[in-house]
What we know:
This protein has helices at 48-61, 84-96, 105-119, 121-126, 203-209, 213-225, 257-266, 271-276; strands at residues 12-23, 27-28, 34-35, 37-38, 43-46, 127-129, 144-146, 149-151, 154-159, 163-169, 183-201, 238-248, 278-282, 295-299, 309-313, 321-322. It is α+β, with helices and mostly antiparallel strands.
Amino acid sequence: xxxxxxxxxNRHDVLLLFEVTxxxxxxxxxxxxxxxxxxxxxRGIVSDVCLKRKVRxxxxxxxxxxxxxxxxxxxLFVRQGAILGNEIANAVKKSGESLDSGASKGDKQEAAxxxxxxxxxxxxxxxxxxxxxxxxxxxxAWGQVRGPVQFTFGQSFHPITPLEIxxxxxxxxxxxxxxxxxxxxxxxxxPYALYAAKAYVSPAFxxxxxxxxxxxxxxxxxxxxxxxxxxxxxxxxxVVRGIYDFEHVGxxxxxxxEQNKREARLGCAHAHKLFEGIEVKLKDDREFPxxxxxxxxxxxxxxxxxxxxRLNKRHEQSPPLVS
Length: 323
């Protein structure tokens, strides 16, 4: 059985399906907060940092308990009101307390990076730029942390038609506007769209940041629930419809554990081939989607997964399929 406190050793390739109904999944501040859109195809776009923000919000709201004094923490480095330079300076100070007085600058930089990875879930998962603020970390090779979890942009399966909705307010902001009966505003919505994004989890980078199997479960918990506790007028009806987690487990017999570990770490099939096995298409009688019921989602891997790959349908919480 896998030790949930051990560093992640298996590669994971994840396909995430989510929908929006009468909302704005990711407004563009350079375009009046219009829903982001690929103007070549008119398909909707959701940025990778938007998805990471949802994960951070969930972890901040429902942080797991720390298992031990030296175990991984679940604070967030990038959060509302944080001063990153102060966090880095604090890391240099805290990590330096356990070093010998003759420690080199490189030793101090490495210790600070490891302290930050241990304390902050988002650095451990997504990485971060730490070579700012404190003089100890400036220009340091330890100041660029590449996280094991990387998201792509989400993109809708079909073109979207953003709508601009005018709204009124019966109150005014300034005293000189008191004679006005109401003020006007607007908001932008997408009537309906189904999006797909991809995530990749690399054990090679997990080893560097200390990302564990427990952290992976926290990530999937966040993906499953990231819209449930992030409701707003603009995102009142966003739903996760699929989390297809392709876990690479290796093809070797138990007697060849080292080779199997290498295969699981490297991967047993190309990610794009695995993703192509999840087929999303409109039903024959539909010209454009108005709800998830208009789509047909098929999985050709239910019976013939490539050797060494396990499919975990995280959105169903069902027993994994194993090849």
